[in-house]
From TrEMBL, chains A, B:
InterPro entries: Aminoglycoside_PTrfase (IPR002575), Homoserine_kinase_II (IPR005280), Kinase-like_dom_sf (IPR011009), Pseudomonas-type_ThrB (IPR050249). PANTHER family: AMINOGLYCOSIDE PHOSPHOTRANSFERASE DOMAIN-CONTAINING PROTEIN, AMINOGLYCOSIDE PHOSPHOTRANSFERASE DOMAIN-CONTAINING PROTEIN-RELATED. Belongs to the pseudomonas-type ThrB family. The lineage of its organism: Bacteria, Pseudomonadati, Pseudomonadota, Alphaproteobacteria, Micropepsales. This is Homoserine kinase. Its EC number is 2.7.1.39.
Amino acid sequence: MAVYTDVSFEELESFLAGYNIGAPLTFKGIAEGVENSNYYLQTTKGAFILTLYEKRVRTEDLPFFLGLLEHLAARGIHCPLPVRNLAGAQSVILGGRTAALFTFLNGVSLRRPEAGHCAAAGAALAKMHAAGKGFALTRKNALGHDGWDELVQACLPRADEVEPGLADLIATAHREITANWPSGLPSGVIHADLFPDNVLFMGAEVSGLIDFYFACNDAFAYDLAVMLNAWCFEPDVAFNVTKSKSLIAAYAKQRPLTAAEREAIPTLARGSALRFLLTRLYDWLNHDPHALVRPKDPRDYSRRLRFHRKVRGVGEYGL
Amino acid sequence: MAVYTDVSFEELESFLAGYNIGAPLTFKGIAEGVENSNYYLQTTKGAFILTLYEKRVRTEDLPFFLGLLEHLAARGIHCPLPVRNLAGAQSVILGGRTAALFTFLNGVSLRRPEAGHCAAAGAALAKMHAAGKGFALTRKNALGHDGWDELVQACLPRADEVEPGLADLIATAHREITANWPSGLPSGVIHADLFPDNVLFMGAEVSGLIDFYFACNDAFAYDLAVMLNAWCFEPDVAFNVTKSKSLIAAYAKQRPLTAAEREAIPTLARGSALRFLLTRLYDWLNHDPHALVRPKDPRDYSRRLRFHRKVRGVGEYGL
C-alpha cells in the first residue's frame, strides 16, 4: 500500500484549474489499492479521490473502466463517479501519468465480514450485474480461464519453491478445470475482484463498491465464485458455509441462478481460486525487493483450491 | 511514504469504543511522514488522525510530544490536539503499537513556498516559541550539536561513496561549527523540523503546524536556521535571499532577535545543514532495500552546507 507518483500541491492547483470542484482544503496520499497512486482531496465543494494510473492499468482500458462507472452510477450503484473536467474529459495527464478524479464514497471495508455482511455484499453484486446491462463497451477477461495457461507455464517451474507439491496441484487442477469449464452461462459486465477491500459498509449496509480495474465481460456466476473465495473462508482457511449460503441466497434473491449456473459453481469456485493462486504466485516469484508493495501469500489460495477440489456437490456451498 | 502497521476496521471499532468521538464514516491509511503509520478517520463527530508509533519514535518521549501539543493547542497554536480517551489517556496500545488520536487540521503543505509563505511560516514559528513557554516537561535535542560526533564517525568512512570530497567537507565543517557554536542564546521548546511538509496552508495563511516528533529544548534561533535551510533554497539549491529576509523579518516582528542571535545565524545555518546532511547520509548508507521508504538524497544538504560556509556575514541572509 503506497503512493508511487508524487503530486505536489502546486501540480494539484494547476490540475484543479481544469475542474469546477471548488478550492482545496486537504490533499493527502492514501494507501489504497496496490496498482495505482491515490490521493484523498477535500475541497470547498466536497470530497474526491484522485487516481494516477501506474503501469499495471493499461490506459487503453480506461474508457471501459471510467465509462462503466458512469453507467453504473447513473443506474443507482454506489460506485466512484468519474468527475469530468471543464472540457468534458474523464481523464487527463498529471505528473506524467493518466489521472482521473472521482467522487469520494464514505464507508469502511471490513477485514472479517460476518454472514450478514456477506449477504449485503452478495445482493450488491447482483444489483451491479443488473445495472451493467446496456453498457456499450466490452472488455475481455484478461485473467479469465483461457488466459491461465500462460500463467501456469510461467509459474510451474518454481512453484514447489513456495510449497512442496504446488506445481502438481496447479497442473492437475488446471487440467480438470479446463475440461469442466462451463459455457453459455448468463454473462455481462462483472467486477471480477470483489474482495472485502472493495466493498464499503456503513454499519450493516453496503455504501459503495470500488476498484473496478479488473471489470470485464464474463459469466455472472464467476463473479459469485470469486466472492465465495474472498468472503467465505475464515483466517485459518476453513470454509464457512453459513457465509456462503447467505451470500448466494442474497444474490439469488436479486437474480435467481439458472440450473446450469448452480451446477457450475464448484468448477467456477475452483477456477477463481486457481486464478488468484496463479497471480499471487507469479507476483511472489517475480517480486522486486525494491517495490513498495509486499506480495500476498499465494498459499492462502492453494489451500482454498484444495478445499474446492474435495467438494462433492453444490450442497457444500449451501445451495 | 507508507503505512507500516495494518489496522483492520474491526480493530478500529474496538479502539473507538474507548473514545467519545462518534461512529466511523471513513478510515484510510495515509502516506504522511516517514516514521509512523497514519490513518485518516472521519466520524459522525469530526475528522481525526490516528497515529501508530513505529520504532523511530521512542515511547518514553510520548508524554513530552503529546503534552506539548496539548499545551500549544491550549495557547492558540493550530497543531494536532491529542484526543484523550474515556479513561483520560492520551495514548493506548493498538495493533501492537502505541497509538494516539489527534484532531485533523485542514490545509495543504506546499512544495514550492513563495516569499509570502516563508513570512507566514516564520511568524508561526515565533508564535509557537512564545506559546511553548511554561511547558513543564523538557527533552534534550537528540540531534543537537553535541550529538553529531557519533553520526560523523558513523558516516565518514563511506561518505565519499556518495559524493567525492564529502568526508572532508563533513570533518572540516564539523570542526569549525563545533569551535564556533554559540552558547547562552534564548532557548525554549523548538520544533526542530519545520520543513514545508510540516506547515499547512489555507491560501496565504498558516492553518496548522504538524509533526512535532523532533521537538525538544534548544536555542530558538536554531529553529530559524533549520527553516532557512528548508524554506529558502530553490530546487537547484540556489539560496533565495528574498525568502530568507521575509522569513527572518516576520519571525523577528513577533520576537525580536538579540544581537547574539543575529551574529550566530551563519553558524546555526551551517550546523543545521550539517545535521540534516548527517541524518540523510546515514539513512542513505544504511538503507534497507526492503524498506517501504526511499531515503532522501543527502547531496541536497551538502550543497546547502557548502553555501553557508562561503557566507561572510549575516547580510547575506537578508538581516
